Amino acid sequence: MVMEIKIISDRENPLLNRREIKFLVEYEGATPSIKDVKMKLVAMLNADKNMVIVDTLNQEFGKMESNGYAKIYNDEKMMNLIEKKSVLEKNKIEEEKEEIEAEGE
Q1: Which of 14, 36, 49, 100 has its C-alpha lying 20 to 30 A from 72's C-alpha?
Q2: Range of the domain at 97
Q3: CATH number of the domain enclosing 43
């Protein structure tokens, strides 16, 4: 799958101890999964994959692009305190699936 991510804004939020990233994903074919977008962001921004939370990924109707919002935390304790359980689970499940796939190869 061909996917390109363009960073729209990259803002430091010292109060919540995180970076807030707004981005645009341009792709061909099917809409990329949160896992694919997360791993591409980790590579682009040189961040720890356990500290990156892809909060939203909204597809533009009739276009091969999606708008997204991600947060990169500096502290795991703060991340667990602020983020909703559902968002943490959505991002954590993707990591566990990846580990299971890696073990199967």
Answers
A1: 100
A2: 3-104
A3: 3.30.70.330
Residue appearing with tokens 């991340």: 79
Domains: count for the chain:
1
Residue type present at position 42: V
41 and 52 in contact (C-beta within 8 Å)? yes
Residue-wise pLDDT tens digits, 55-77 = 999 988 888 999 999 999 998 89
In order of 50, 58, 79, the CA distances from 85 in angstroms are 15, 20, 10
How many Cβ atoms are within 10 Å of 57's Cβ, its own excluded? 19
Q: Model-level pTM greater than 0.85?
A: no
